[in-house]
From TrEMBL:
InterPro entries: EgtD_Methyltrsf_superfamily, MeTrfase_dom, MeTrfase_EgtD-like, SAM-dependent_MTases_sf
Domain Histidine-specific methyltransferase SAM-dependent: 5-310
Keyword line: Methyltransferase, Transferase
Protein's organism: Polaribacter ponticola
Chain coiled-coil ranges: none
Thylakoid listed as a keyword: no
Pfam family for this entry, one: Methyltransf_33
Protein name: L-histidine N(Alpha)-methyltransferase
UniProt keyword NAD present: no
Length: 311
């Protein structure tokens, strides 16, 4: 874990242009900041997907075509706020299933389990801490699975990586299985910009936490007041890109790598891609990864899609 982190930090800060991966945002502090992001009114993604899972659970259940018991496998379960709504609705509809939340963070799973036990005490839960594909390859043949990959988490992947990831999921599924995957749609660029360049400084804190983490875990001496946050949305290609900006020419020493890194005045570190999709892109992702598109579930504003794919 820490070895991979060290390696990725060294690679990213030695590269030209510099980059760090958004997958390292989510330590305990980062996960808490992300909860605050999801609660911001500007971060419409939460409300849009919540609406879909609240109001269209019955329609989703009908399209599943599952008879009898099934599994719901959630990849990167997070805090479960939106999923719990879906699970509750499914139970009210009389569906019978086991919920299998999967996350690499034990702490995230523990928090989720506590919440689920409180809100849906009768739910059958079989949590898994570890690699998504490890879990998928242990699933039995006799019971179908609905795999959830919600929240537009796919938006963090570059195109080829997203393609490879979806294809790997497809390879691990059985003929009756389904995938419900969230995509944030292209929309008025101002709406998108406001969701990421927020006036509260929460998204800035989310990015800054990466430097804080490198200081704490790798013994670096990043001076957080000498970096700022910048992000921008390009409506031509649907990409939100987030950066940290060096506010002066400076050197940063990382103890556990015993190495210094130079930053120019105004040099950028690219931290995140949050891709927004068109319908055509979603369809071609689906076909290219050998899935069949069963149905697109949209919120009333048409901001977000939960797309249901069959094997
Ligand atoms: C969790 C990847 C969907 O890209 O919208 C929120 C993370 N970054 N604000 C996103 C995030 C900045 C989020 N995802």
């Amino acid at each position: 874990m820490i070895e991979q982190f060290k390696k990725d930090v060294d690679t990213g800060l030695s590269a030209q242009p510099k980059h760090l991966s958004s997958k390292y945002f989510y330590d305990d502090i980062g996960s808490q900041i992300f909860q605050k992001i999801m609660a911001m009114p500007e971060y419409y993604l939460t409300d849009s997907e919540f609406e879909i899972l609240s109001l269209q659970a019955k329609q989703i259940a009908e399209k599943l075509n599952f008879y009898g018991t099934f599994n719901i496998i959630e990849l990167g379960a997070g805090d479960g706020y939106k999923t719990i709504k879906l699970l509750k609705n499914f139970i009210e509809l009389g569906l019978e299933f086991t919920y299998i939340p999967v996350d690499i963070s034990k702490k995230a799973i523990d928090i989720l389990l506590e919440k689920v036990a409180k809100e849906i005490p009768d739910l059958k839960v079989k949590p898994f801490v570890g690699d998504y594909f490890k879990l998928l390859s242990t699933m039995p043949n006799d019971i179908p699975s609905l795999v959830l990959f919600l929240g537009s988490n796919i938006g963090n992947f570059k195109k080829d990586d997203a393609q490879y990831f979806l294809k790997s999921i497809q390879n691990h599924l059985k003929p009756n299985d389904k995938l419900l995957i969230g995509f944030d749609l292209q929309k008025n660029p101002i709406t998108i910009k406001n969701a990421y360049d927020d006036p509260h400084g929460i998204t800035k804190a989310f990015n800054m936490n990466l430097l804080h983490r490198i200081n704490n875990e790798l013994g670096a001496d990043f001076r957080l007041d000498k970096f700022d946050f910048y992000c921008h949305y390009n409506p031509v290609n649907g990409e939100v890109r987030s950066y940290l900006v060096s506010l002066k020419q400076q050197d940063v020493y990382i103890k556990s790598l015993d190495k210094s890194y130079s930053f120019d005045y105004n040099e950028l570190i690219w931290t995140e891609l949050s891709k927004k999709y068109s319908f055509t892109e979603i369809e071609s992702f689906c076909t290219a990864s050998k899935f069949k598109l069963t149905h697109n579930f949209l919120d009333c504003k048409h901001y977000f899609i939960d797309s249901l794919w069959s094997v």
